[in-house]
Predict the structure.
Amino acid sequence: MRDERVEKLADLLVNYSIGVQPGWKVVIRGGAAGAPLMKEVYKHVLLAGGHPLVMADLPGIQETFFRCATDEQLQFIHEPVKHIYENYEASIAIISEENTRAMTSVNPERRLMHRRAFEPVFNRYLERAGRGELKWTVTLFPTQAHAQDAEMSLAEYEDFVYRACMPDMDDPIGYWQGVHDRQERVIEWLKGKDAVHVVGPETDLRLSIAGRRFINCACDANVPDGEIFTGPVETSANGHVYFSYPAIIDGQMVSGIRLWFENGKVVKATAEKNEAYLLKTIDTDEGARYLGEFAIGTNEGIQKFTGQILFDEKIGGSFHMALGTGYPETGSVNKSAIHWDMVCDLRKGGEIWVDGELMYRDGNFVIG
């Protein structure tokens, strides 16, 4: 049965998030389970006058690659992939896993080897995006696997996803334009500020945003959206933080993460579950122990953890930080093969102070 929400989401992605222009080359990436949305996106890119290219993953392809590839093959990057990141005007990614744990038993060293080889291509992608040469967006098509992670039926999860992406189904673009305007007032207040102090359960962390730019996220990149973020000064983080929710990377779930920072660097890290993987990942390279992102989630339609970072980092009343590479448009200069988001709930006893003034308490902005 046709779901009109799929077509509306495709329209939002192509004509608002990306704003595809005639003649643009647009790559559409995703898993085979996301075919209904990929086809609608393909159609809307054509209607906008663009040139769509679909790159679809078959079930089990990634697992086969990491189990069978030699070291040489793990480090090989195809020239057409490099060409796309270097020359295309837009990228639309659709997360649509059929098994979110398929990579769990893959040797992490093999994942790290491939990630390091891809790092120059990814950094070039970020540089072009930061200069406005490449527009990108990423969303999720609901599958049974994602629904199970969220502990919902597929029908419940579909409702959750589409409500989060399009809270006003009659005018999704108008809704996100309103979110942009509200968040822009906070960003204006933050301009010229320096010292950030985050306080919460098992959390007392200070960092600097001096000279850095906050980005207003209102569905022009991630869909759903609802956050403001920046790249903190690389050597500024001092203190400790406890992340309320599990952090997931490469299909691995790490729970109860505690990090201690000195002069920007993680000097101690523990986890209640999967600590070995945490330690291995933050030793990927020098930049992996430094922050590339500091952000505040603002999407009030997302109130629970689902195990999918695209939604979890937007939880209204949370903040998140990412270890590893930062976004150049914020002023960040941190480079790494990883960008690992970790989320902390501030709705019960959390505060954010900026230059000695209370900005945020118990999950709400308190500035005028």
